[in-house]
Hints:
The protein has helices at residues 2-28, 34-46, 50-69, 71-92, 104-124, 134-143, 147-163, 168-190, 205-214, 246-256; strands at 195-201, 221-226, 233-242, 261-267. It has a four-stranded antiparallel beta sheet, with helices on one face. It starts with a helix and ends in a 15-residue tail after the last strand. A hairpin with a 6-residue loop joins strand 2 and strand 3 (233-242). It is an alpha+beta fold. The longest helix has 27 residues, at 2-28.
Amino acid sequence: MKRILKFFGIVLGNLIFAFGIAGFTIPNQFLVGGTTGIARTMEHYLGLEVSTTVALVNVITFCLGLYFLGKQFALTTIISTLIYPIFLNMFTSMEALQHLTEDRLLSAIIGGIIIGSGLGLVIRLGGSTGGMDIPPIILNKKFRIPVAVGMYVFDSVILLSQVLFSDVEQILYGIVSVLITTIVLNQLLVYGAFDVQVFIISEEYEKINERIQTELDRGSTFVEIQTGYHKVEQKAILCVLPNRELSRLNDVVLEIDQKAFMVINSAREVKGRGFTLDKHLA
Length: 282
Protein backbone atom coordinates (compact mmCIF):
# COMPACT_ATOMS: atom_id res chain seq x y z
CA MET A 1 0.00 0.00 0.00
CA LYS A 2 2.83 2.35 0.91
CA ARG A 3 4.57 1.76 -2.43
CA ILE A 4 1.32 2.37 -4.31
CA LEU A 5 0.78 5.69 -2.51
CA LYS A 6 4.39 6.68 -3.21
CA PHE A 7 3.94 5.83 -6.90
CA PHE A 8 0.81 7.94 -7.23
CA GLY A 9 2.47 10.73 -5.24
CA ILE A 10 5.40 10.83 -7.67
CA VAL A 11 2.99 10.79 -10.62
CA LEU A 12 1.04 13.68 -9.04
CA GLY A 13 4.29 15.59 -8.49
CA ASN A 14 5.20 15.22 -12.17
CA LEU A 15 1.69 16.32 -13.13
CA ILE A 16 2.02 19.50 -11.06
CA PHE A 17 5.54 20.11 -12.39
CA ALA A 18 4.44 19.74 -16.03
CA PHE A 19 1.42 22.00 -15.47
CA GLY A 20 3.63 24.76 -14.07
CA ILE A 21 6.03 24.53 -17.00
CA ALA A 22 3.31 24.34 -19.68
CA GLY A 23 1.01 26.94 -18.15
CA PHE A 24 3.48 29.62 -17.06
CA THR A 25 7.10 29.08 -18.16
CA ILE A 26 6.75 28.05 -21.81
CA PRO A 27 4.01 30.58 -22.84
CA ASN A 28 6.09 33.45 -21.44
CA GLN A 29 9.40 32.07 -22.77
CA PHE A 30 11.07 32.31 -19.35
CA LEU A 31 14.55 30.94 -18.79
CA VAL A 32 14.32 27.44 -17.34
CA GLY A 33 16.89 24.84 -16.33
CA GLY A 34 17.04 21.08 -16.76
CA THR A 35 15.74 19.13 -19.72
CA THR A 36 13.02 21.70 -20.36
CA GLY A 37 15.70 24.36 -20.82
CA ILE A 38 17.51 22.18 -23.34
CA ALA A 39 14.19 21.57 -25.11
CA ARG A 40 13.46 25.29 -25.25
CA THR A 41 16.82 25.93 -26.94
CA MET A 42 16.25 23.08 -29.41
CA GLU A 43 12.80 24.43 -30.20
CA HIS A 44 14.27 27.84 -31.02
CA TYR A 45 17.09 26.63 -33.25
CA LEU A 46 15.68 23.40 -34.74
CA GLY A 47 11.92 23.80 -34.36
CA LEU A 48 11.55 20.57 -32.35
CA GLU A 49 8.60 20.26 -29.97
CA VAL A 50 9.52 20.78 -26.33
CA SER A 51 7.88 17.54 -25.14
CA THR A 52 9.68 15.52 -27.85
CA THR A 53 13.11 16.86 -26.89
CA VAL A 54 12.38 16.37 -23.18
CA ALA A 55 11.43 12.74 -23.81
CA LEU A 56 14.57 12.14 -25.91
CA VAL A 57 16.93 13.72 -23.35
CA ASN A 58 15.24 11.85 -20.49
CA VAL A 59 15.65 8.52 -22.26
CA ILE A 60 19.34 9.21 -22.99
CA THR A 61 20.12 10.26 -19.41
CA PHE A 62 18.11 7.30 -18.07
CA CYS A 63 20.22 4.89 -20.14
CA LEU A 64 23.38 6.60 -18.87
CA GLY A 65 22.14 6.27 -15.29
CA LEU A 66 21.30 2.61 -15.82
CA TYR A 67 24.76 1.92 -17.26
CA PHE A 68 26.88 3.91 -14.80
CA LEU A 69 24.76 3.91 -11.63
CA GLY A 70 22.94 0.60 -11.76
CA LYS A 71 19.38 -0.72 -11.81
CA GLN A 72 18.44 0.43 -8.30
CA PHE A 73 19.13 4.08 -9.14
CA ALA A 74 17.45 3.78 -12.53
CA LEU A 75 14.25 2.53 -10.92
CA THR A 76 13.97 5.78 -8.92
CA THR A 77 13.99 7.80 -12.16
CA ILE A 78 11.95 5.66 -14.53
CA ILE A 79 8.56 7.04 -13.46
CA SER A 80 9.54 10.66 -14.11
CA THR A 81 11.44 9.70 -17.28
CA LEU A 82 8.28 8.25 -18.81
CA ILE A 83 5.50 10.28 -17.21
CA TYR A 84 6.78 13.87 -17.30
CA PRO A 85 7.08 14.17 -21.13
CA ILE A 86 3.56 12.73 -21.50
CA PHE A 87 2.07 15.26 -19.09
CA LEU A 88 4.08 18.07 -20.67
CA ASN A 89 2.84 17.18 -24.15
CA MET A 90 -0.73 16.96 -22.87
CA PHE A 91 -0.63 20.38 -21.20
CA THR A 92 1.24 22.19 -23.99
CA SER A 93 -1.39 21.00 -26.47
CA MET A 94 -4.15 22.67 -24.43
CA GLU A 95 -4.75 26.08 -25.96
CA ALA A 96 -6.40 27.41 -22.78
CA LEU A 97 -3.19 26.94 -20.79
CA GLN A 98 -1.25 29.19 -23.17
CA HIS A 99 -3.25 32.25 -22.08
CA LEU A 100 -3.79 31.83 -18.34
CA THR A 101 -2.53 35.36 -17.63
CA GLU A 102 -0.87 38.17 -19.54
CA ASP A 103 0.93 39.37 -16.40
CA ARG A 104 4.52 38.12 -16.62
CA LEU A 105 5.36 38.86 -13.00
CA LEU A 106 2.31 36.91 -11.82
CA SER A 107 3.30 34.06 -14.15
CA ALA A 108 6.84 34.01 -12.73
CA ILE A 109 5.57 33.90 -9.14
CA ILE A 110 2.73 31.40 -9.57
CA GLY A 111 4.74 29.28 -11.99
CA GLY A 112 7.67 29.15 -9.57
CA ILE A 113 5.39 28.08 -6.72
CA ILE A 114 3.70 25.35 -8.78
CA ILE A 115 6.94 24.00 -10.27
CA GLY A 116 8.68 24.00 -6.87
CA SER A 117 5.70 22.19 -5.31
CA GLY A 118 5.74 19.47 -7.97
CA LEU A 119 9.48 18.91 -7.73
CA GLY A 120 9.36 18.98 -3.93
CA LEU A 121 6.65 16.30 -3.85
CA VAL A 122 8.60 14.00 -6.16
CA ILE A 123 11.88 14.33 -4.27
CA ARG A 124 10.28 14.16 -0.82
CA LEU A 125 8.73 10.81 -1.74
CA GLY A 126 12.15 9.47 -2.65
CA GLY A 127 11.73 9.75 -6.41
CA SER A 128 13.95 11.51 -8.87
CA THR A 129 13.10 13.92 -11.65
CA GLY A 130 15.71 12.17 -13.80
CA GLY A 131 16.93 14.17 -16.76
CA MET A 132 19.78 16.52 -15.95
CA ASP A 133 19.98 15.31 -12.34
CA ILE A 134 21.76 12.20 -13.61
CA PRO A 135 24.96 13.53 -15.34
CA PRO A 136 26.24 15.32 -12.18
CA ILE A 137 25.75 12.11 -10.17
CA ILE A 138 27.71 10.14 -12.78
CA LEU A 139 30.52 12.73 -12.72
CA ASN A 140 30.58 12.49 -8.94
CA LYS A 141 30.92 8.72 -9.07
CA LYS A 142 33.57 8.66 -11.81
CA PHE A 143 35.60 11.80 -11.13
CA ARG A 144 34.53 12.76 -7.57
CA ILE A 145 33.17 16.11 -8.70
CA PRO A 146 30.65 17.29 -6.06
CA VAL A 147 27.07 16.78 -7.25
CA ALA A 148 26.09 20.35 -6.33
CA VAL A 149 28.95 21.77 -8.43
CA GLY A 150 27.98 19.60 -11.39
CA MET A 151 24.34 20.64 -11.16
CA TYR A 152 25.23 24.33 -10.97
CA VAL A 153 27.52 24.03 -14.01
CA PHE A 154 24.96 22.17 -16.14
CA ASP A 155 22.11 24.49 -15.15
CA SER A 156 24.27 27.57 -15.78
CA VAL A 157 25.17 26.37 -19.28
CA ILE A 158 21.52 25.56 -20.03
CA LEU A 159 20.34 28.95 -18.78
CA LEU A 160 23.08 30.82 -20.65
CA SER A 161 22.19 29.02 -23.88
CA GLN A 162 18.71 30.60 -23.66
CA VAL A 163 20.05 34.10 -22.95
CA LEU A 164 21.21 34.32 -26.57
CA PHE A 165 17.64 34.41 -27.93
CA SER A 166 15.70 35.85 -24.97
CA ASP A 167 14.85 39.48 -24.31
CA VAL A 168 15.75 41.24 -21.06
CA GLU A 169 12.31 40.77 -19.49
CA GLN A 170 12.25 37.06 -20.25
CA ILE A 171 15.66 36.70 -18.62
CA LEU A 172 14.76 38.70 -15.51
CA TYR A 173 11.36 37.05 -15.00
CA GLY A 174 12.98 33.67 -15.62
CA ILE A 175 15.47 34.35 -12.83
CA VAL A 176 12.59 35.32 -10.52
CA SER A 177 10.76 32.09 -11.39
CA VAL A 178 13.87 29.93 -10.81
CA LEU A 179 14.53 31.57 -7.44
CA ILE A 180 10.94 31.05 -6.28
CA THR A 181 11.04 27.44 -7.48
CA THR A 182 14.20 26.83 -5.44
CA ILE A 183 12.74 28.44 -2.31
CA VAL A 184 9.49 26.46 -2.49
CA LEU A 185 11.35 23.22 -3.27
CA ASN A 186 13.65 23.59 -0.28
CA GLN A 187 10.81 24.55 2.05
CA LEU A 188 8.86 21.46 1.05
CA LEU A 189 11.83 19.18 1.61
CA VAL A 190 13.09 20.16 5.04
CA TYR A 191 11.98 23.70 5.84
CA GLY A 192 14.61 25.35 3.68
CA ALA A 193 17.64 23.29 4.66
CA PHE A 194 19.90 21.70 2.08
CA ASP A 195 21.08 18.99 4.49
CA VAL A 196 19.50 17.23 7.44
CA GLN A 197 20.82 15.89 10.71
CA VAL A 198 19.18 12.65 11.81
CA PHE A 199 19.43 11.17 15.32
CA ILE A 200 18.31 7.52 15.42
CA ILE A 201 17.59 5.52 18.57
CA SER A 202 17.05 1.80 18.02
CA GLU A 203 18.10 -1.50 19.51
CA GLU A 204 19.13 -2.50 15.98
CA TYR A 205 21.65 0.32 15.70
CA GLU A 206 24.40 -1.96 14.36
CA LYS A 207 22.30 -3.15 11.41
CA ILE A 208 21.04 0.36 10.66
CA ASN A 209 24.56 1.78 10.80
CA GLU A 210 25.86 -0.85 8.37
CA ARG A 211 23.06 -0.12 5.87
CA ILE A 212 23.69 3.63 6.10
CA GLN A 213 27.35 3.14 5.20
CA THR A 214 26.90 0.48 2.52
CA GLU A 215 23.66 1.51 0.78
CA LEU A 216 23.56 5.27 1.29
CA ASP A 217 27.35 5.68 1.28
CA ARG A 218 27.08 8.14 4.18
CA GLY A 219 29.15 8.53 7.31
CA SER A 220 27.66 8.03 10.75
CA THR A 221 28.64 8.48 14.38
CA PHE A 222 27.74 6.39 17.43
CA VAL A 223 26.60 8.33 20.48
CA GLU A 224 26.55 6.64 23.90
CA ILE A 225 23.10 6.98 25.48
CA GLN A 226 21.00 5.59 28.31
CA THR A 227 17.28 5.09 27.79
CA GLY A 228 15.16 7.12 30.19
CA TYR A 229 12.62 4.50 31.24
CA HIS A 230 14.48 1.18 31.31
CA LYS A 231 17.92 2.71 31.95
CA VAL A 232 19.46 0.59 29.20
CA GLU A 233 22.94 1.52 28.02
CA GLN A 234 23.14 1.51 24.21
CA LYS A 235 24.27 3.54 21.23
CA ALA A 236 22.36 5.98 19.05
CA ILE A 237 23.31 6.97 15.50
CA LEU A 238 24.00 10.50 14.34
CA CYS A 239 24.02 11.00 10.57
CA VAL A 240 24.09 14.07 8.32
CA LEU A 241 22.98 13.71 4.71
CA PRO A 242 21.44 15.68 1.82
CA ASN A 243 17.69 16.09 2.11
CA ARG A 244 17.15 14.16 -1.13
CA GLU A 245 18.41 11.03 0.63
CA LEU A 246 16.15 11.41 3.68
CA SER A 247 13.38 9.26 2.22
CA ARG A 248 15.83 6.43 1.51
CA LEU A 249 17.21 6.62 5.04
CA ASN A 250 13.71 6.53 6.50
CA ASP A 251 12.89 3.40 4.45
CA VAL A 252 16.11 1.69 5.59
CA VAL A 253 15.48 2.42 9.27
CA LEU A 254 11.83 1.35 9.25
CA GLU A 255 12.65 -1.80 7.30
CA ILE A 256 14.98 -2.87 10.11
CA ASP A 257 13.08 -1.51 13.11
CA GLN A 258 9.48 -0.30 12.87
CA LYS A 259 9.76 1.08 16.44
CA ALA A 260 12.91 3.13 15.82
CA PHE A 261 12.87 6.68 17.20
CA MET A 262 14.14 9.33 14.77
CA VAL A 263 14.76 13.03 15.32
CA ILE A 264 15.26 15.03 12.11
CA ASN A 265 16.64 18.58 12.13
CA SER A 266 17.56 20.93 9.34
CA ALA A 267 21.27 21.65 9.05
CA ARG A 268 21.86 25.18 7.80
CA GLU A 269 25.54 24.59 7.11
CA VAL A 270 27.65 21.44 7.03
CA LYS A 271 31.42 21.38 6.60
CA GLY A 272 33.89 18.53 6.35
CA ARG A 273 34.35 15.20 4.61
CA GLY A 274 31.54 14.33 2.22
CA PHE A 275 30.25 17.91 2.07
CA THR A 276 32.85 20.66 1.67
CA LEU A 277 35.64 18.06 1.40
CA ASP A 278 35.89 15.00 -0.83
CA LYS A 279 34.56 12.05 1.20
CA HIS A 280 37.25 9.83 -0.35
CA LEU A 281 40.04 12.13 0.87
CA ALA A 282 42.70 10.16 2.71
